[in-house]
Amino acid sequence: MLRKISFVVVSVLSMLVVAVCAFAAPPIKIGGLFAVTGPASFLGEPERNTAQMVVNEINAAGGIKGRRFELVAYDTQGDATKAVQAANRLIKEDRVVAIIGPSTTGDTMAVIPIAERAHIPLVSCAAGSKITAPVKRWVFKTAQNDALAVARIYEHLAGKKLTRVAILTVSDGFGSSGREQLKANAARYGIRIVSDDTYGPKDTDMTAQLTKIRGSQAQAIICWGTNPGPAVIARNARQIGLKIPLFMSHGVSSKKFIELAGDAAEGIILPSGRVIVADLLPNSDRQKKSLLAFVKDYQRHYRAEGDHFGGHAWDAVMLLKTAVERGGDNPAAIRDQLEKIRNFAGIGGVFSYSPADHAGLNKDAFVLVEVRNRDWALVK
Amino acid sequence: MNLVQQLSQYILSGLSTGAIYALIGVGFAIIHNATGIINFAQGEFVMLGGMLTFFFFSALKVPLLLAVALATGVSTMAGVVFERLAIRPLKNATPINLVIITIGGSILIRGIAMLLLGKDTHSLPTFSGDEPIMLGGATVLPQHLWIFAVTLVVIVCSKLFFSHTISGKAMRACSYNRRAAGLVGIDVRRMVLFSFTISAAMGSMAGIIIAPLTMTSYDVGVMLGLKGFCAAIIGGMSSGLGTVFGGLILGVLEALGAGLFSSGYKDAIAFIILLLILFIRPQGLFRRGESERV
Predict the structure, then answer these.
(1) Which are the contacts of A154, defined by CB distance < 8 A and separation ≥ 6?
(2) Which residues of A touch B122 (CB under 8 A)?
């Protein structure tokens, strides 16, 4: 009997000791809100995968000052209501010190008030410029603004003296944001929009819009959308024998677009983050090291090509890691340190946050790429 | 680029999209005529056709023609299984219940396709090249000719089937009066199964021939299904020429609307037509006022 009791006592004690040991260095919890399923899963899935991969790697390398990083990730399904619920849960139950995501601009806008009220830093992976304009104290973002991509295209067009353009944008959030930016910035580059058309995200034939554009005075077409629409447009343009150059947005900068559009993709130019052309970059490029590391790791873990979206999460985790290393693990210190980060060469670009700029990138975050022989080539 | 050339391109584009709508619409009409229900899972058979062809062609590396045959076969089986598991077990269900079940079925099929075949968009190679063909200032692709041809063949076959074979006549009898058809010895339940088989096969054929042009993914069925439904409504749910004209009219109006007015209203055009027809001529554009068709 005594033996039995002492056995129980000893085992309880030893469990307590183990628990105390674990308690001595609790992990640093960061939250993740990603649209892993639903219509925005093409964003959320690589983001979640990448975030988990980077966190595992940080831990394998000894964590941050001996403490483990722990990622608590929830699926928002691209639904603002679910994003809000998950954000509350991360803050109140999981007690995270910072949140990465959400994946879409809509989800992010819904979560911002919660992060602001709870004083938890939020590093969004969505692109909408309104996320950080005006600047919100606790909100940062890693995805490039659409305006930067527009600036890249317009600069190129102005350089080629192509001043009359037709725009063809998809009628969803991505397309209407692009359309706004295209219209707002045209005058600054001396460009006139002579035809302004849209198409539905599920449309299967855009020859009507393109025929209309062919009848206009346009010298170039800029199409703003995500797959598969732009691939259909590329094929339709080839079908009706459209001769003027076709530009796409960064929304299609993945091999998938070339695969879908086939030969019709040849010669199309688009602004893109550097991930897809990592190996073509000159060695002097500051981002090259991060880019190659990310691409290689992602390939090894998930047997898929690392993309821009995963890159946004890579940047968010690494920025948080930098902030925690410098300032410790309380949310206010993380926020202050994030704001002080300068010249951080990540995947999306070289980040320099400041009290007046929580987006941190300039138009150098994009390079212009052209489709040549079913692959990407840098446009000089 | 003069207006005539533009117009002919709009009309040609519209006709080729319209032929697709027609093919899907006929599938709706056949099931409706045999069973009195609107099968909202029709769009999913279209999706299955395209996605399965891609799966057999790319993942299993079978030749395109065999992939097409296999995909049609599997989708048709899916239609049969759907009827057996979801429609037949319900005795004395009202049409509205059945309609809701088909909606549920469509969500299920889409979900399974997403899990098994992935969320990516895929493209198939065209059947006979990519070189555009000039037709009086407008252009079409060889694939469009395939679409026209398949639509034509399907319509002719279904016409022959419904007017000249015993099974076809039996199915028509079911559509006029199921009880009476049963009384004269027609196995109504077999005809229902038959109608699902034919529609699933037709839907998957539509999905296969359009996939090289429009791409395919697990969720293409929703919009195409709705457009096909519009075509069938315009045609008054006839399984013949009415629905074909309905589809062509819809396609041309969409293209003209997008080209001459604003492309933002393209889908609105289809649904406004649908509502107008339902309000003003519920029996369809081409049928006289006998709307006793269950």
Answers:
(1) A185, A186, A188, A189, A191
(2) 260
